[in-house]
Specification:
Blueprint: H1 3-7, H2 10-15, E1 22-25, E2 28-31, E3 34-35, H3 36-39, H4 45-54, H5 60-72, H6 81-90, H7 96-104, H8 114-131, H9 136-150, H10 168-180, H11 187-200, H12 211-221, H13 226-250
Antiparallel strand pairs: 1-2, 2-3
Helix pairs in contact: 5-10, 5-12, 5-13, 6-7, 6-13, 7-13, 8-11, 8-12, 8-13, 9-11, 10-12, 11-12
């Protein structure tokens, strides 16, 4: 046996994928130290998500608020690119898992990333207000002036489809109730509401929070990191993607494209032309 082979002993191999998330042995499944059989029937799925991501079981009010945010973002119809792509994939002979993966893989910075971006924005503003003792209104005004000067949209506010996102009020109301009960600090909520108020100032139509902004407030108040905000959105939206993929697959239609067969995309290229063959 070479020295290299000798160095790769059992401990080195075992430590290669060391984890504090789960312990799996023959006859044993423990999640963050809890035997899975003790969780089944006693701990909700949202609470299990919290346990797996955070290492401890949440309080009842924390699990309930997390569940509300997960429910709110489940679906937004086949006009959402991620869902449309999953439905098309389901008609192309791929497995249901591949159809769902097709939809999930479209959830990037532009479609699906605004919640994470809003969480980061709220976190940065909160840090500025606390660390530099800057009033919330002043910090928000400075940020909006910079964004307007750069021609940028504020992530998590406004909606291309809804004048007022119907998911905004129940989620923000739930956070406000938790803050009033003293169970959440409310710092991120305060900043989000100030952003909403200043975005609406002087406008005929307000720019209320959308689902991304509302869930960003929930996840930020619950202490999740911004990147996990996108992960939680993906978990939530995967339910809708699965439902749509299954419905489309069950229809029996094959190879369904983005527009109905009688319609063709508008052609904007050169007019009809033929190659010069060089013959007289």
């Amino acid at each position: 046996m070479s020295e290299t082979q000798a160095a790769v002993d059992g401990n080195v191999v075992s430590d290669w994928w060391s984890t504090s998330v789960s312990e799996i042995e023959p006859g044993v499944v423990r999640l963050r130290g809890y035997p899975v059989e003790s969780l089944i029937g006693t701990v909700s799925f949202p609470a299990t998500i919290w346990l797996m991501l955070r290492g401890e079981l949440p309080a009842v009010h924390e699990a309930a608020l997390l569940e509300q945010a997960l429910v709110a973002a489940v679906d937004h119809g086949p006009q959402a690119p991620s869902i449309a792509a999953a439905r098309m994939a389901a008609t192309c002979g791929v497995g249901l898992n591949s159809a769902v993966a097709t939809g999930v893989n479209l959830l990037g910075d532009v479609h699906g990333g605004a919640g994470q971006q809003c969480m980061q924005l709220l976190s940065d503003l909160r840090h500025t207000c606390v660390s530099d003792d800057v009033p919330v209104a002043a910090a928000v005004a400075e940020l909006l002036a910079r964004y307007r000067g750069e021609g940028r949209f504020v992530p998590g506010f406004g909606h291309r489809f809804h004048p007022r996102d119907p998911r905004r009020d129940p989620l923000i109301g739930a956070v406000e109730a938790e803050v009033a009960a003293g169970r959440l600090a409310g710092g991120h909520l305060e900043i989000a509401l100030e952003l909403e108020a200043q975005l609406a100032a002087g406008r005929r139509r307000p720019v209320p929070m959308n689902i991304d902004g509302a869930t960003a407030v929930v996840y930020a108040e619950l202490g999740f990191e911004p990147e996990l905000g996108r992960g939680l959105f993906v978990l939530s939206r995967s339910v809708g993607i699965l439902a749509h993929a299954w419905e489309e697959r069950s229809s029996g239609r094959r190879i369904k494209g983005p527009i109905p067969p009688p319609l063709l995309p508008t052609y904007t290229g050169a007019a009809l032309r033929l190659p010069d063959t060089g013959t007289p």
